Amino acid sequence: QVKNKAPAEVQITAEQLLREAKERELELLPPPPQQKITDVEELNDYKLRKRKTFEDNIRKNRTVISNWIKYAQWEESLKEIQRARSIYERALDVDYRNVTLWLKYAEMEMKNRQVNHARNIWDRAITTLPRVNQFWYKYTYMEEMLGNVAGSRQVFERWMEWQPEEQAWHSYINFELRYKEVDRARTIYERYILFSALQHLPDCRPAFFILFPNWIKYARFEEKHSYFAHARKVYERAVEFFGEEHMDEHLYVAFAKFEENQKEFERVRVIYKYALDRIPKQDAQNLFKNYTIFEKKFGDRRGIEDIIVSKRRFQYEEEVKANPHNYDAWFDYLRLVESDADAETVREVYERAIANVPPIQEKRHWKRYIYLWINYALYEELEAKASSKSSAFFLSFPTDPERTRQVYQACVELLPHKKFTFAKIWLLYAQFEIRQKNLPLARRALGTSIGKCPKNKLFKGYIELELQLREFDRCRKLYEKFLEFAPENCTSWIKFAELETILGDIDRARAIYELAIGQPRLDMPEVLWKSYIDFEIEQEEYEKTRNLYRRLLQRTQHVKVWISFAQFELSAGREESLSRCRQIYEEANKAMRNCEEKEERVMLLESWRSFEEEFGTETTKERIDKLMPEKIKKRRKLQAEDGSDAGWEEYYDYIFPEDTANQPNLKLLAMAKLWKKQQQESEAAEVDPDKDIDESQS
C-alpha cells in the first residue's frame, strides 16, 4: 500500500513517456532478412506468393486504388506489361474517375514506348473526364515531344471545344508561337476574346474585370511582333467593348503606355484625360499616378498644372460625394473650377452645389448655403461668357445679365420667407438691376422684400438707394413704413430727423424727435435724447435745450445727464453761464445725496471741482473741497450661494461731510486717527530719548 499519496515534485506526462520511448527506439523492429533467388523455380514461387499477397489485399478492399497501382507497378518492374495493363483495366472498372490511375496507366505505356497504347489511354481519359486539364496537358505534351505537331494541334482544338479556362488558351497560343505560327496565334486570341465576352454576362461587373488582362495580353502580343496598327486596334476595340459602364484603369494605363512607346504623346494625354473624366475617383489612383509621371517626363508646365488641378478636383469630388451639404468643400471646388475650367463646367458644378438645399428650415443652416447663390450670380454677371447651353436648373438666355437675373429670382423664390430671409440677397439683386439701369425692377425687388419679410437692413438699403437717387419723398415714405415696422429703433428716428434737417424742414425734424422720445419702448434712448439735444443746440434754441434737459432729468437722474447739462450751460456763452452752471451742479449734488451709487456722486463732485478750479474763486474752491468725500477702507461679510459663510472682503467706501447721519462716525474716526498719531510719537520717544533732548535744546 502507498502511504504517501501526495503528488510527486516532478510530474511525468504521457507525451514525455512516448517521446522517451521514441528516442530510445524501444519498439524498433529488426529488418526482414534478405532473400536471394538462385533459380527459375524460386523466382516463380516468389511471383506466385507476391501475386497472391496483392490479390488478397485487393480482395479485402477493392476501392483502395493504391493497392492496384502498387500491383501494376510491381508487374511493370518484372516487364510483365500485359499483366500490368490487365491490372490497370481492372482498376478502371472499379473507379474510372480516379485521375492518378489514368496518369499512372498512360505513363507506364509512354515509359515502355507504347505510343499507340498511350494515345488510346489519353483518348479514353479525355473522353471520360474532359474537365481534367492535366490529361489534356499531358496528351498535347506527348504529341509535341513525338514531333506530331498536327496531332498536338488537333488535341488542342478538341480541348478548346470544351471552353476551358484561361491558361489552356494561353498554352495553345504559346504552342503556336513556338512554331512561329503568328497568324494561328492571332486567330486563337480572337476566338478566346469572343469566348470570354460570351461567357461573362454584362450585368456581372466583377466578372468583367477578368476580361481586361486578356485584351491587354492580346495587344501586347501584337506589339511584341511589331504589328503596332493591330495592337492599337485591339486597344480601341477593348475600349469600345467595355464602354463607360465597365471601365478599368489597367486597360487605359496599358493603352497609354503603348502610345507612349510609339511616341504618340498627344494620344497618350487624350487617353489619360478621357479615362480620368469617366472612371470613379477611388478606382483611378494608379491611372492618375501614371499620368503624373508621363506629364513630368514629356509635358510642359501647363500639363503638370492640369494634373494638379485634376487631383484636387478628385479630392473635392470625393468630399462632396461623402457629404453633399459640406458647403465649404463646394466653395473650394468652385474656386478651383472657376480658375481653370470653361463656363459650362463651372455652371454644372454651381447647379450641383445649389441643388443641395439644407434639410432644416433654420437660418443657421442656410448661412453658408446662401453664398453659393450669391457667388453663382456674381460669376454669371462678371465672368461667364454669353454662349451657354441649357442646364438642369435654368434655361439658357442670350445674355449673361438675363442668366444673372434668373439666378437671383430662383434664389428668392427658394427662400422660406415666412420663417426667415436674407437681406443681402435682396439688396444684391436690387444693386444688380441698378447696374443694368433697370430702376423699376430694382424698386420692385426691394418693395417685394419689404412686403414679404421686412427687416431693418432691407429698409436701410432701400432708403440709401433712394437717397443716392435724390428721391426724398420716397425716402420719407420709406422712413414712415420703417418706423411703423420698428418704432423702437432709435437710429431710424435719428436718421429720419437728420434727413429733414438736411432738407431744411426744422419743424418736421423737431416733430420727429418729439414723436421718437414719446415712444413707450426704445432700444437706445440715451442716443436719441443726445441727438435731439445736439439738434437744438445746433439750431441755437437754448431755452428748448434747457427744457429738454429738464424733461430728461424727470425720467432719469443719471450723473452724466447732470454733467452734460452743466457743460451746456457753461458753453452757452452768456454772462450768467457760470452762475447757471454752478447752480446746476448744486441741484445735482442735492438730487444725488440719496443716490446709492456713491461713485456717481464722486464723479459729479470731481467735475464740479474741475469747473471751480478753472472758473471759480477761492471761496468757491474751498467750498467744493469741503464737499469732497473721504475714502476709507471697510470690511464686509461674504456669503456663498448655499448661504454659508465665505469669509470677509475689503472694499472702499466714501463718506461725505454733508451727510449729517455720518457725522458721529466722522468724529469717532478723527479721534481714532489722533490717538494713533500720539501712540506713534510715544513709541518713537522710548526708542531714542537723546534725540528728544537734543531737539528740545535746539
Automatic annotation (TrEMBL):
Pfam families: HAT_Syf1_CNRKL1_C. Residues 679-698 are annotated as: Disordered. Keywords: Coiled coil, mRNA processing, mRNA splicing, Nucleus, Phosphoprotein, Repeat, Spliceosome. Gene3D superfamilies: Tetratricopeptide repeat domain (1.25.40.10). It is found in: Nucleus speckle. GO terms for cellular component: nuclear speck; post-mRNA release spliceosomal complex; precatalytic spliceosome; Prp19 complex; U2-type catalytic step 2 spliceosome. Residues 66-365, 402-550 form the Pre-mRNA-splicing factor Syf1/CRNKL1-like C-terminal HAT-repeats domain. Residues 683-698 have a biased composition (Acidic residues). GO terms for biological process: spliceosomal complex assembly. Its main location: nucleus. Residues 535-601 form a coiled coil. Belongs to the crooked-neck family. Involved in pre-mRNA splicing process. As a component of the minor spliceosome, involved in the splicing of U12-type introns in pre-mRNAs. This is Crooked neck-like protein 1. It comes from Ramphastos sulfuratus. The gene is Crnkl1.
